[in-house]
TrEMBL record:
Family annotation (CDD domains): SAF_DH_OX_like
Name of the protein this chain belongs to: Flagellar biosynthesis protein FlgA
One example GO MF annotation: oxidoreductase activity
Xref: Pfam families: DRL_cat, NAD_binding_3, SAF
Length: 446
C-alpha cells in the first residue's frame, strides 16, 4: 500500500496519526495549510512561544477558529481539534502523540526538543536542519537507541536530494554528484538582513506580506543554508563534500551533467561521489535561463556501453560522452510537503533522510573583522556565515559549528573570511546542544 492508502485506512479505522508541532512560523504554517486536507492525521497540539501568533498564522492559512478552542491536549484528542499553547514539554510528553514535528528554526532549542521526544518514545521529523548539521549523526543514534525514528523533513531540499540519491542507487546507478540550486555570487557571503531582499529578488513589501524573516532568508542567500543542507545530505548519503567549501558552478538544468563531472573529465568535482550546489547566476551576474535555483538534482553514471546506448535511445540528455545523466526536480514546495515525512515515519517506520555518519560540517566564518567582546548572531546575521568543510578538516581546525554560533562572545580578533574555532569564543557549555556536539566529536574522533 502507498502512503496515501495507508492514511486513508487509518482514517477509516478511526486511528489517525497523532501529531505535535513545535513552532508555527512560516515553515510550520505551510504544513498547517495541508493538515486539513490530509486524511488519517490529527494535529493534536501546537506549541509556540507566542500562541497568539500561532493562532494568527492558523487564520492566515484558512483554519476555522473553533478548531483551536480546545483548552487542553486531552480535550483536543476527545474533540478531534487542536490545542494551541506554549508548553512544548507537555506536548512531547503526552502519551497519545505519535510524531513530533520540530519546526522552530532554532538549532539549540531543537536539540532539546528532539532529545525530550526521544526520551518519551516519539518519532521526530526535524525541520530545523541547522541542528542536524552540527549534531545530526548523534541525534540519529540516540533515536535508534530509544527505538524511534528521526528524520529530515520532506519538502526541504535535503530530504528531496536524499530521495533522488536513493532512487539512483536503488536503480543500480553510481551517484556522481547530488545537490540543490541556489542564487549565488561570491559577495553574497557578506549579505546582512538589511541587504537580503534586494539580492534575493523580493521587495520589502512582498517580504512583509509573506511574513518572511529577513535573517532566515539571509541565511539562504549568504551561503549558510546551502552549506547546512549540503552537510545534512552528505551525512545522510555518504557523499563527500568539497575540501574548501562549495564551488557553486553556474549552470542551466541542461548543463548540470556537464559541470558535475570530475575535473579530469571537464567538470568541477574533485572526484566522483560528491555534494555540490549549482548557481542560477553567471559569474558576471547574468541570470541563467531554465535554472535549478529552487530545485534539486542527482547526476548518475552509465558504467556500460549498453546503459549509455539506453540513454541515447530514450533521448536522455547527457554530457558529450554519454556517460553522465542528471535527473532533477526543478521546484520544491517546502512545508507543503512535510506530510510525506510524517506518514513515512509513522506508517512505515522509515525516515525521509537521516544521518548515517559524520562526513561534513558547517563552520562559522567571519563576514567582517570581529573584535573581542562582540557577540555572534548565528546564521543569516551580521557577523558570520557558514562554510561547508569535510568533518575531518573541521575537527583539525577545532571549527566552531555555525549552529552554536548564536549569542556567544568573541574573545580574540578574527579576520574577515577566517573560520572561527572554539578558542575564538566563550562558549556556554551547559546547554544540551553543546554537550551533544561534544559527545559526537569524541565518538567520531579520528
Amino acid at each position: 500500500m502507498n502512503l496515501h492508502a495507508k492514511l486513508q485506512q487509518r482514517q477509516a479505522e478511526g486511528k489517525p496519526v497523532r501529531i505535535g508541532l513545535i513552532g508555527a512560523g512560516k515553515f510550520g504554517s505551510m504544513y498547517l495549510a495541508q493538515v486539513p486536507r490530509t486524511p488519517g492525521v490529527h494535529l493534536v497540539g501546537i506549541a509556540d512561544l507566542s500562541p497568539a501568533n500561532a493562532k494568527a498564522n492558523l487564520a492566515r492559512v484558512g483554519w476555522e477558529s473553533q478548531r483551536t478552542e480546545a483548552a487542553s491536549l486531552d480535550a483536543a484528542i476527545k474533540a478531534g481539534t487542536t490545542h494551541v499553547g506554549d508548553d512544548w514539554q507537555a506536548l512531547v510528553r503526552h502519551p497519545a502523540i505519535d510524531v513530533v514535528v520540530e519546526c522552530t528554526g532554532h538549532p539549540i532549542a531543537a536539540v532539546d526538543h528532539c532529545l525530550e521526544a526521544f526520551a518519551h518514545r516519539k518519532h521526530v521529523v526535524n525541520v530545523t536542519v541547522e541542528a542536524d548539521a552540527f549534531c545530526g549523526p548523534l541525534l540519529a543514534r540516540k533515536a535508534q537507541e530509544a527505538g524511534v525514528v528521526y528524520s529530515l523533513a520532506f519538502g526541504d531540499q535535503p530530504a528531496l536530494i536524499c530521495d533522488l540519491v536513493d532512487w539512483a542507487r536503488t536503480c543500480g546507478f553510481p551517484v556522481v554528484a547530488a545537490g540543490r540550486g541556489h542564487k549565488w555570487l561570491p559577495h553574497f557571503s557578506e549579505s546582512t538582513p538589511e541587504t537580503v531582499w534586494g539580492y534575493y529578488g523580493l521587495t520589502p513589501e512582498q517580504a512583509k506580506r509573506g511574513g518572511l524573516n529577513p535573517k532566515m532568508f539571509n541565511s539562504f542567500l549568504d551561503g549558510s543554508k546551502p552549506s547546512i543542507e549540503s552537510t545534512a545530505v552528505s551525512n545522510a548519503t555518504g557523499l563527500a563534500v568539497p575540501g574548501n567549501g562549495l564551488l557553486y558552478p553556474p549552470a542551466s538544468v541542461e548543463d548540470i551533467p556537464f559541470v558535475t563531472r570530475p575535473r579530469s573529465e571537464g567538470g568541477v568535482l574533485e572526484r566522483k561521489g560528491m555534494v555540490e550546489v549549482i548557481s542560477s547566476l553567471e559569474a558576471d551576474g547574468r541570470k541563467i535561463p531554465y535554472d535549478i535555483r529552487m530545485g534539486v538534482w542527482v547526476t548518475v553514471e552509465a558504467e556500460t556501453e549498453y546503459i549509455r546506448n539506453c540513454f541515447e535511445e530514450y533521448n536522455a540528455h547527457t554530457d558529450p560522452s554519454g556517460r553522465y545523466f542528471t535527473l532533477y526536480k526543478r521546484w520544491h514546495l517546502i512545508g507543503l510537503e512535510v506530510g510525506v515525512s510524517v506518514a513515512s515515519v509513522a506508517l512505515r517506520g522509515e525516515p525521509t533522510g537521516v544521518a548515517t555518519g559524520w562526513n561534513a560540517d558547517v563552520v562559522a566564518t567571519a563576514k567582517r573583522d570581529l573584535q573581542p567582546g562582540e557577540t555572534l548572531d548565528g546564521e543569516g546575521g551580521y557577523t558570520v556565515w557558514g562554510k561547508l568543510l569535510p568533518a575531518e578538516k573541521s575537527t583539525q581546525l577545532g571549527g566552531l559549528p555555525l549552529g552554536l554560533a548564536h549569542g556567544v562572545k568573541v574573545v580574540r580578533p578574527v579576520k574577515k573570511g577566517q573560520s572561527l574555532s572554539w578558542g575564538d569564543v566563550a562558549m556556554d557549555t551547559s546547554t544540551r546542544a553543546w554537550k551533544v556536539r561534544n559527545e559526537m566529536e569524541k565518538l567520531y574522533a579520528r
